[in-house]
Structures are given as C-alpha cells and as structure tokens.
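User: Study the fold:
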Amino acid sequence: MSEVYAARRTRLREYCNAGGSAAALVSRPANVRYLAGAAPQGAVLLLGRTEEHDLLVSAGAAADRPTQERPDEALRVQTLPGVGGGDPAVSAAGLAAGQGADSLAVEEHHLTVARHRALGSVAPRLRLTNLGSAVEQLRVVKDEEEISCLRIGAEIADQALGELLESILVGRTERHLALELERRLVDHGADGPAFPTSVGTGPNAGRPGHRPTDRRVEEGDFLSVCLGATYRGYRCEIGRTFVIGTAPADWQIELYDLVFAAQRAGRESLVPGAACRDVDRAARQVLDSAGYTEGLTVLTGHGVGLEIDEDPQLSPAAMGKLDACVPVTVEPGVHLPGRGGVRIDDTLVVRPEADGGPELLTITTKELLAL
C-alpha cells in the first residue's frame, strides 16, 4: 500500500503546487487516513515540497494494530513529546515554516477558528490558504483495493442481517434488535458499525434517521432495518423492510412494490457519465407519480467510503456526474405518519455497461418477506 499512499500524496502535491501553495496541512481524520494509512487518533499530515518532506505528526504513538491498520511505513512520523504532546496541527505549521515554506494550504472546513489562529501565531510569516475539499474530491473514485474493503463490509452486513431474520422477533424492542445487529457485525469481523444502527417497527418503520426506541415488535408491523459495517476503515450501508408475523396487508404490498420500483429505477440509472440529479429524478419520479411527494426522503443516495456520507450526493439539486468506480447508496423510502413506511437501501459501485453495469455489494433479498 505504500506506493498507493505515495501516489495519492503526489496527486495532492500537484494540486497544491498548481494553486501556489508550497505545503499543505491535512487534519480531517478520514483524509489523513486516505493519504497516510491508519494513523493515531488526532494525527495530522504535513505535505511538503517533495515526498522527503512529508511528515505524519502525532500527539501519541500508534496503539498495537494489525499490519494493515498501521500508518504508511514509508512515511516519516514525528511524535510530540510529553503527556498530551500539544496540538499536532500547530506543531506541523511550525515545521512547515522551518522547512522554508512561505505558504500552507489548510482544511478550513475542518479547523476551528481558535485552531486556525493558533496556526497563524506559531508561524506568523506563513501565508495560510484554503485547501478546500481537494482531498475529499480525490477520494470520490475508489481503487479496487478500496472497493474490496467495501465488498467485505457489505458481506458482513448481509450476514448479520440474515442471522437476525432467522431469530424470533415478536416482542423484542427496537433497541434490543439494533444492539444485537451491531454485536453480530463485530462477531463477523467488522471494525464496528458504520453508523448507529436504525431499527423501526410499526409507525416508526421507514422513518429516515430513526433512533431505536423501546417499542416492541408486534404482529402485522412493518419492520425497517438500516445498518452498515466498517471494514479497514471503509463503510457500507444496507436497508431492508419486512412484515412481521402475518401475510402483508394490501396497503403494505402496494407501498413496498412502489418503493422497490423506485429503488430499481435509481439502480438502473447508475452509469458512468450520468448526472447525479438524474439518478435522484429516476427514483423520485416513480414515487411522485403515485402521490407520495410529501413522504419522500431529501435525497436518493450518497457516496460511501472512509465516511458513510461522502460525495457524490444523489439529490434534486446535485451537481456533477458519476464516474466509474464510485460507490454510492440508492435508498429511496416513503414514511406515512402514524402508519409506518418502507425503505430499501443498497450499496453499489458504478461500473460501465461493458463490465456488467452497476455492481451490487449488498445482496440480501429485496423480496417482501413475512417474518
């Protein structure tokens, strides 16, 4: 992986040089990991004029981790002395000035005002510029190693969900089911959940961002589950909706079939070159045409990777187009207040038609099961 990390840093260095910055300070944790590997908590990356000037600055040594979970071995690491060690970002700014840099590009969207001022005070002759979301944009298109991590994470999530569906659900609380799912993720090799697991039953089913409660599963409920696994830092997502105990009611079948059709329309729109807003439109039009405008989610999907919510955004106002090898979710849903709702959520990778079209990573059945 050292060659991969070095190539990523080279691309960022070229971007900085083109913008007139001699050095860059990367402080957002996901961006540090992308460029330097699994660094100690709070570490920052100082990107110098050349690869020899690159430095990972940390307030503490890395804990014992598997080999694949360590910083790039080709990268120099400087650990700050003393308990706590001070602020690595402030120390890195001083080091940049000591290297002779006259400007330093920083991630202003991640720095607090106080931290930005501290950078200026430690190196007053250093001109601070905004790196913006340059690293986030580099992260959008994934290499096959990154996609492999997402694929394994999806397999873990599928396995955890499949085991839950084989257990007795009636009478158990949303909170209990969510905790069990997260335990199963870790049991099957995940670093942990990719985000807080959502389990909704009855009137809570299909509600976006629902936090599990002590409501118990009842016969005839819709049960919606949204979970994800983190594997080597990469996060995937899956969401499914089921009916509990009995054959589904007519209204449940109708609503489920509608959301399924919307989700399929969104998935089929995932081709390189497709406008992000057009993917959203493809799914949204199916639901709009059936009169469910008020119950829709604000976006159809989003990118995933080292964070669970990355670019691109698949929303009505989204700009830009999809590239190949971009993993995204497609997750339309409808929630009817007081009755519940349906959400179907998959993680896929955009692939050209010649390669078989979009690659589905989350493969748990989307059939409306009565559990």
